[in-house]
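Hey, quick one: can you model this chain's 3D structure?
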Amino acid sequence: MKLPIFSKLLVGTTLILVASSAQAKPKSWVQLTTETNATKYVTGAPINIMLTAKNVHSNDAFLHFSSGQRFDLQLFPKGATNPVYTWSANKMFNMMVGQLKLAPSQSQTFQTQIGDDQGALVPGKYELRAHLSNSSLIEADPVELEVVAAPVKFEATVDKTELAVGETLHVKMTVTNTTEEAQTLHFGSGQSFDVFISNEAGKQVWSWGANKRFIQSVRDVPLAVGESKTFDATWDGITFPDFKKEPGTYTVQAVLTTNPRIYATPTKIEVK
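Sure thing. Here's the predicted structure for all 272 residues.
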């Protein structure tokens, strides 16, 4: 019997659970499930993934690995036999054997992301297939995803690419209807955009909407042919409490919080 799982989709400040299903291969002591943050993505949007390996047996489970790699992911166009994305393809792993012990009912989670590092995904339907990289190749059931073309153009610019620690950064965003017909932007709350700042490790150190409240009301915003709307955000140089204000390379990611979300091309900045 398949066990239902739920993907987490954040719309404004509301958490929506998106149902999907995944299970381990029959007779496996360890059940692997896959969760994604949505089921539909605009081209260029990152796909956030969480894998959970759970021991469903009454005895301890021991997973043996031949390297530092613990899992792998592949993305297949619906009905295709060859993947268009393999998570491990551009990564290097420590060549050291390892072991993961899971007591009865114990779980181990892994989080990662599919981006455009292996090329932007073309619109269409896909299957996400995940497995542990140990000798038994414990697999999760495929999760179906859809990628759609962005109906509008969304761009973001920063007022500087080099700044001192604690210095203010201004981000200007523009959404433009470049199609030949009127478009409607669908929002799930009063929030229209967000801006995320991430460090070199990929950890989010700040977001514009983190300390803000938005009206929880679905709304549609029309955009005529050739029409543009602009938004502005300011990073005051302060980071979340778990992070220090320190020099380094950071990534600025602007997001139009439509459903599905539309991502601008990220920008690298240097904090000195």
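One thing worth noting: Residues 1-26 have pLDDT under 50 and may be disordered.
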